[in-house]
Backbone:
């Protein structure tokens, strides 16, 4: 649907967008109200208290505690409503629900590369189902980009060497703009695409129509064996020289400096590209770095493989979403990757 004019706000197509808009209009409303109030009172006083003759000396003003209290307390309360409301929307946006389906995003000058956990790849397009929670795990191969879907009111930088996440639940089928919102070099303005929100059944058809590709977990398992990771990190610890990887994702790991850390995406990525940074308690600094040997996409695939080595698979929602499209279940991946499988 093309309109000849630029709409005042983008279409509203996620569970978050109405909340962001309500907050936005509240802020605009408060601002407009006080702008008009101040302007009106100012105009009135300018006329009412204008100097009427050249020698007029105004009555001295001693101040008023009552007045000062009122004009401090009322703005304080208004500012706190903005803070509390804003914080509530912020927390909702930045805490992805645990049951969200994960999709990997890698930014690159000048395109968005996307991979679904079932293997489908897309460039500058993101197909998502309406009514399901989606979590994007995002990084970049080169400079800072910024993933922005105005219709969903979500936007986050992607930063080299880091994972950032966004989550959303689309509420309306349609095709929406996808932008890079961080100037990233010559063709930044061309780093655009579409988000296609499909009804769940259509989405499942789309997934199964594109199911010839390897899932990231399977691709990750291949990289894992090509690079010889298994000789030290048997999935169940049989390599012996490195920590066991089975079930490690999301768990607390104790380090040799006495601290402990949750084995999340960031920690696992760091342990591959900079293995000496945080050594697991009981293991020596013997692992070489794999910096430069694995691309960001491959790192995400290794991550998907390590995540799949769980007894309880957090991707359950994604698998249920498209049973026909899953070439290999994580349980099978883990069976192939680990002789000492449960
Ligand atoms: Cu960019």
Residues:
């Amino acid at each position: 649907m093309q309109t000849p004019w630029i709409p005042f706000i983008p279409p509203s197509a996620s569970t978050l967008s109405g909340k962001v808009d309500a907050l936005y209009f509240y802020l605009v409303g408060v601002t407009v109200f006080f702008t008009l109030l101040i302007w009106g009172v100012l105009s009135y006083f300018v006329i009412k208290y204008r100097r009427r003759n050249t020698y007029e000396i105004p009555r001295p003003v001693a101040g008023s505690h009552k007045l000062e209290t009122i004009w401090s307390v009322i703005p304080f309360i208004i500012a706190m409503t903005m803070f509390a409301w804003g914080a509530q929307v912020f927390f909702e946006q930045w805490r992805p629900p645990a049951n969200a389906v994960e999709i990997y995003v890698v930014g690159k000058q000048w395109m968005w590369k996307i991979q679904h956990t079932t293997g489908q790849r897309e460039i500058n397009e993101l197909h998502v189902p309406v009514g399901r929670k989606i979590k994007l795990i995002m990084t970049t191969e080169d400079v800072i980009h910024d993933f922005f879907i105005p219709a969903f009111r979500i936007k986050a930088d992607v930063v080299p060497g880091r994972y950032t996440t966004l989550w959303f639940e689309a509420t309306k089928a349609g095709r929406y703009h996808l932008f890079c919102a961080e100037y990233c070099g010559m063709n930044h303005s061309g780093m655009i695409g579409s988000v296609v929100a499909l009804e769940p059944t259509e989405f499942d058809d789309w997934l199964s129509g594109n199911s010839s590709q390897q899932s990231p977990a399977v691709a990750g398992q291949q990289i894992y064996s090509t690079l010889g990771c298994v000789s030290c990190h048997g999935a169940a610890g049989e390599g012996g020289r490195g920590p066991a990887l089975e079930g490690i994702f999301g768990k607390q790991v104790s380090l040799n400096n006495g601290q402990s850390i949750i084995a999340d995406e960031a920690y696992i990525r760091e342990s591959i590209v900079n293995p000496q940074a945080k050594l697991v308690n009981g293991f020596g600094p013997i692992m070489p770095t794999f910096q430069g040997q694995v691309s960001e996409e491959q790192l995400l695939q290794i991550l998907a493989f390590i995540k799949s080595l769980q007894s309880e698979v957090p991707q359950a929602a994604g698998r249920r979403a498209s049973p026909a499209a899953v070439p290999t279940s994580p349980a099978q991946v883990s069976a192939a990757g680990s002789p000492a499988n449960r």
